[in-house]
Specification:
It is a single chain. This protein is of the alpha+beta class. It has a five-stranded mixed beta sheet with strand order 27-34-33-29-30, with no helix packed on it. Strands 42-43-40-49-50 form a five-stranded antiparallel beta sheet, with no helix packed on it. Helix 6 crosses helix 8.
């Protein structure tokens, strides 16, 4: 018996997921922009973190990736997952055009940015730049540049005007959608109601004489510039979702290698969130850091970067403030422990490994006496590196903050952070059975059971806002129970997205711990939501918006004498109200309802369909189906041991690989390599619960990673990851990594990019080193070689075309790359980059897909043994064709 490649939906909870997926993708319901970008909500009149419903966030995009990953789990179709990543990369990850490398390469890692103080109130801005204040050193920039061959940063900007409602356009053109924008810029008391929307690409076309820049920072003069802000919880959620996509895709033999590479790369850059804002020393924040002494290893509230539009300068900042709600130990585990996701940079894996432990400690430090998790920590008191008041609780020298980052409203009042953040802890516990995670969840879930209300009439309520008192004990390395830190529920509600996330958390915890009460509570929440609030466009509850009087009452601070205009002509000046600089709201179909309620002195009631909330509900139902739904009975996953192994193809070193099966009530079906089942008795044997993968089969596999899916009748199918090596291959003191910049089948130029590392104990004179790239020419023509840039200088790189005396499969020519004396030496541990390109003299096409040295990976450097490297004529890397 074999499971179908594309599965039919089974069970009520899987059907719910698929029904919601269909609702979200029905174009009549309006969840997506014409460009395919998911909106924050269907409805446009909305003010919360975004100040307009069709202004979307990186959070929304990360949920889109997660939603499509789970759709692939249930259907085998991962095209939506790929599309979601492609949409994110196209529209919310700033491209090289949005952050020109010519500007970003002017970055000075020894002085990452100029200090500006943070102030409590918007009325204290602009904040004057202080070039004399201490700023530390950025220790990861050079590693990232060397690894990825660019100074451009790979992370999602947090806010996107999906319809170009404000009219800033893309890169200042005033018309293109979507458009990068920002709002929050002026201290912890600045609510959304007090913000002034501004373009990320500020070429001073809109706003005042200096665009919007002099509203926020005080300087002697201003330049046209770009600036972006990353929300680390969204990036880490995208990485988390991609991990699950890879796990689920392997069940169908679907290759997601390209997208795993994107997630890994995003994680590499996400390390900027682990550093103090101005790279000052952690716990001694008046002093400039010298490197990793500025790393707190937490996922802080943001990291940001920017530069001159047509100038060779740029800046990068981390963040001094960390909220527990942004932590993601699951993502840290993925990036530090899973080979496919490990970042390519030199320190990426070790940084994430340290972050994993630091995050778990952070949760422990902040867990209240009742079990809820308190706010967070800062390395910069008041955003100005002031001394902490006597008695302030500390974590690695940083001070406790009840509400990190913002105070209107307090950032840790919202119960949603409890569900969002602990869901990641629950996944981590489910995958690893980590004892720290278990202890955190045991106490937290016990508290949750006391604060969720399941009423006899079929309704339910979950906490909405929380009140905090006291503070944690100073962190000394172990949890004290925090008898002086307390939480109580101040208000209740039915936030459906949060309820979905809460159910998700309880389900992973239940499956990992065996606590069936947690499963029953999650099921009750999911069932009651579905029965009470399901409509044609998804799930929604009426919301009374007491804060909507601020449309009309809230003054937005503008300094006296400052004047400017929004793209639609709205005047920005001292005394304006929220609505005055957003007059387009008056044309919104819900505006009259809000205005009439304001005139009556009542609060309007509206229904919203937030994209992230629909996803949270859908995903939670999907999790129930995966973990517990199988013909109406709980499903236990089968297991294999080991889940990773190595095989050496060298003659005399080849050995069979034994795998033990734990059935857990299921039936073993077979082993799949991609979509093809292996043949029992030929490629493996099965005796009782022991599988033996035969060396005769493994010896035929290519060097690299081999994934074998062990297929069982029910539950999640485990995957064995085999590392296939060949120690007979000449190996020496160099490592060669490569990727092809263009992977189109037909190209007029072949563009391989090389990264060469000396892994030996002595320096190598580069004139002694040669690399060979093998390909087919198809039609004999003279050829041109180009090296536009290299670490050693483009003029010091040579290229020679050699016709092979005997053609091989995929190769009748090779390009031999060498170096002149001016290239110098390659020191022990040093790496150099050598991007090159070559073409026929008449620019006719090569067909490169079958070429021996061609790599289908187009995202980043990776070991590639089909490039050969020689030192003094001796083969030291790779396999000749």
């Amino acid at each position: 018996m074999q499971k179908q490649l594309l599965k039919e939906p089974t069970g009520a909870y899987q059907k719910r997921f698929l029904e919601l997926w269909e609702i979200l993708h029905d174009s009549q319901n309006g969840y997506f922009s014409p460009q395919g970008v998911p909106y924050h909500s269907i409805e446009t009149l909305m003010v919360e973190a975004p100040d307009y419903g069709h202004v979307t966030t990186s959070e929304t995009l990360s949920y889109y990736i997660w939603l499509e990953a789970m759709y692939g789990k249930f259907t085998g179709d991962f095209s939506g997952f790929k599309k979601a990543w492609d949409i994110a990369e196209t529209y919310i990850i700033p491209t090289e055009k949005d952050q020109p490398n010519s500007s970003m390469s002017g970055y000075n890692a020894s002085k990452p940015a100029t200090y500006a103080p943070e102030w409590e109130l918007p009325s204290l801005y602009p904040a004057k730049l202080d070039s004399g204040a201490a700023v530390g050193t950025d220790p990861i920039y050079n590693d990232l540049k060397s690894t990825y061959g660019t100074s451009v940063i790979y992370g999602m900007h947090w806010l996107l005007d999906a319809d170009n409602w404000y009219g800033f356009g893309r890169r200042g053109d005033g018309k293109s959608a979507p458009s990068y924008i920002n709002t929050f810029q002026r201290g912890r008391e600045e609510s959304t109601w007090e913000t002034i929307p501004q373009p990320c690409w500020d070429d001073m076309r809109f706003g005042g004489k200096n665009g919007f820049l002099d509203l926020f920072t005080g300087d002697s003069n201003y330049a046209k510039q770009f600036k972006y802000t990353d929300a680390p919880d969204a990036d880490s959620r995208a990485i988390q979702a991609t991990y699950w996509a890879e796990q689920w895709a392997s069940e169908y033999g679907v290759d997601l290698e390209t997208y795993i590479g994107k997630a890994s790369k995003m994680g590499d850059y996400l390390r900027y969130a682990m550093f103090d804002k101005y790279f000052r020393k952690i716990g001694s924040s008046t002093a400039a850091g010298t490197g990793y002494d500025a790393a707190h290893y937490l996922l802080s509230w943001y990291y940001a970067w920017g530069g001159g539009e047509n100038a060779n300068w740029s800046w990068v900042i981390g963040c001094s403030h960390s909220h527990f709600g942004y932590q993601n130990p699951m993502a840290a585990w993925i990036l530090s422990q899973n080979d496919e996701f490990k970042p390519l940079s030199r320190n990426g894996v070790s940084d994430w490994s340290k972050s994993l432990e630091r995050q778990l400690e952070f949760y422990q430090w902040l867990q209240s006496d009742e079990g809820g998790i308190a706010g967070g920590v800062s390395n910069s008191n008041k955003g100005r590196y002031e001394s902490w008041p006597s008695g302030t609780a500390t974590f690695y020298g940083m001070g406790y903050q009840e509400h990190p980052v913002y105070a209107d409203p307090g950032s840790n009042r919202w119960f949603g952070f409890q569900a969002w953040s602990m869901q990641r802890v629950a996944e981590y516990y489910y995958k690893t059975k980590n004892l720290k995670a278990k202890a955190l969840l045991d106490k937290w879930v016990k508290w949750i059971k006391t604060v969720v209300k399941l009423e006899a009439d079929g309704t339910f309520a979950i906490p909405d806002n929380l009140d905090w008192s006291g503070q944690p004990d100073n962190w000394t390395g172990s949890y004290t129970g925090n008898p002086n830190l307390h939480v109580k529920v101040s208000t209740y509600g039915t936030d459906l997205g949060v309820a979905g996330s809460l159910a998700n958390t309880l389900l992973y915890y239940s499956k990992a711990s065996g606590d069936d009460e947690a499963r029953v509570l999650a099921k009750e929440i999911l069932d009651r939501m579905w029965n009470l609030y399901k409509g044609d466009k998804g799930l929604s509850v009426p919301e009374q918006r007491n804060d909507y009087s601020r449309f009309f009452d809230q003054e937005v601070y503008v300094p006296s004498g400052w004047t400017g205009t929004m793209p639609n002509g709205d005047e920005i000046k001292s005394g304006v109200k929220f609505i005055d600089i957003r007059s387009k709201y008056k044309d919104d179909p819900d505006f009259q309802k809000v205005e009439n309620a304001y005139k009556r002195g009542t609060a309007p009631v509206l229904n919203y369909h937030r994209f992230w909330a629909q996803c949270d509900i859908a995903i939670a139902n999907g999790v129930y189906s995966m973990l517990f739904e199988g013909g109406g009975e709980p499903v236990n996953n089968s297991a294999i041991d080991p889940t990773s192994a190595a095989f050496d193809k060298k003659s005399g070193s080849q050995k069979d690989i034994k795998v033990i099966l734990t059935l857990n009530g299921n039936t073993f079906i077979g082993i799949k390599e991609g979509n093809k089942y292996l043949t029992e008795g030929v490629e493996y044997t099965l005796t009782d619960n022991t599988v033996v993968l035969l060396k005769t089969y493994l010896a035929e596999k290519e060097v690299g990673k081999l994934k074998l899916t062990f297929d069982f009748s029910a539950g999640t199918d485990p995957v064995l990851v085999l590392t296939v090596t060949d120690s007979s291959i000449a190996a020496g003191n160099i490592q060669v990594q490569m990727y092809n910049d263009s992977t189109n089948p037909q190209v007029s130029s072949i563009v391989p990019k090389f990264k060469l590392t000396n892994t030996g104990k002595t320096s190598i004179t580069l004139t002694d080193l040669k690399l060979r790239y093998y390909y087919t020419i198809e039609e004999e023509k003279d050829q041109n070689f180009w090296c536009d840039w290299s670490t050693v200088g483009s003029s010091n790189v040579t290229g020679t075309f050699v016709k092979m005396p005997e053609a091989k499969p995929g190769a009748d020519y090779y390009l031999e790359i060498g170096f002149t004396a001016g290239a110098g030496i390659l020191a022990e541990g040093q790496s150099i980059e050598v991007p090159v390109r070559f073409n026929k003299i008449d620019w006719s096409s090569y067909t490169q897909t079958g070429d021996y040295s061609f790599s289908k990976s187009d995202s980043s450097y990776a070991d590639w043994t089909k490039i050969t490297g020689y030192v003094s004529g001796s083969l030291k890397w790779g396999v000749e064709p």
